[in-house]
Amino acid sequence: LPKKLQPYLEQKQFETFRPFFHALRFAQDNKILQEVINKITVNETYFYRENFQFEALIEEVLPKLDAQKAPNDVIRILCAPSSSGEEPYSIALSLLDENTLLSKRDIELVALDIDSGVIEKAYNGVYNKRSIQFIPEHLLKKYFRFGHGEFHINDTIKQAVNFQVANVMDRYQMKKLGKFDIIFSRNMLIYFDDESRREVGVTFYDLLKPKGYVFLGHSDKMSRISSLFQTIKLQKSLVYQKI
After folding, report:
1. I want to staple 201 with a disulfide (CB 3.0 to 4.6 A). Which of 31, 32, 226, 237 is the partner?
2. Do 214 and 240 contact (CB within 8 A), yes or no?
3. Distance separating alpha carbons of residues 16 and 13, to the nearest angstrom
4. H-run or E-run covering 11
């Protein structure tokens, strides 16, 4: 039993693992399962983490997509997982800072996580000093308000991201999200076994539009996961494109 769960079992007054497992297995709703998921998931992130990937997105990938698409087409970006919102908000801030693309084309940002607790935090948009330390000063001043020792993101930015609780391993749930041009999935697959990584690779392939792009974390290599993508070097980033 993970150590993270021990305080939870004591709080819920489960004296042994057996009644806990029974409650988890036969519960009439998924409340206990969601609480357990929230306890054991890893949510370590901050704004502009591995910023070179956001630079590649803004300077290379999005201009290519813009040139290829019809004027009224929406560019759709998925962040999976979103954790507490720093990654999708970093994309939104980068787009606003560049500004040219947003002035002529709609871009939809969808962000999901299996942990309902971090999705709630993302909705609220309140962050500590560590989370915001790498945000450019002009963006911090323009889009954040400081109060009670924390940084509150502007409502305009919050409304720019569609946050959802979802599980990347649930193919039906993922299919309902529709098709995307770009998927950010950084520092998640390192926690999966090989079979689960391959399954997620197929899911991402199915979710992408033709020639769509995947951004992975620096510890993840798509060549170890799936042969369905070609590797492209953009600036300091490795990006994976649907074949």
Report:
1. 226
2. yes
3. 9
4. helix 6-11
Query: Distance between CA atoms of 145 and 21, rounded to whole angstroms?
Result: 44
- Quick check: bond before 7 cis, omega within 30? no
- Length, in residues, of the chain: 243
What are the CA-CA distances from residue 125 to residues 89, 162, 216 (Å)?
9, 13, 24
- Whole-number CA gyration radius for the chain: 19
Residue 214 neighbours by CB distance under 10 Å = 25
The answer to whether the CB of 77 falls within 8 A of the CB of 177 is no
Report residue 196 as tokens.
Answer: 């689960």
Sign of CA pseudo-dihedral 143, 147, 150, 152: negative
Contact 52, 157 (CB under 8 A): no
> Three-state DSSP class for 76?
strand
Residue bearing tokens 């305080």: 7
The beta strand positions in the chain, using DSSP E, are: 75-79, 107-113, 126-127, 144-147, 150-153, 161-165, 180-185, 208-216, 229-234, 237-242
List pLDDT tens digits, range 132-156: 999 999 999 999 999 999 999 999 9
| Mean pLDDT value across residues 83-112 | 96
Per residue in 44-78, pLDDT (tens digit) is 689 999 999 999 999 999 999 999 999 999 999 99
Model pLDDT, residue 34: 59
- What pLDDT band is residue 93 in, cutting at 50, 70 and 90? very high
Q: Put residue 83 in one of left, alpha, beta given phi > 0 → left and psi -120 to 50 → alpha.
A: left
Q: What is the torsional sign of CA 120, 121, 122, 123?
A: positive
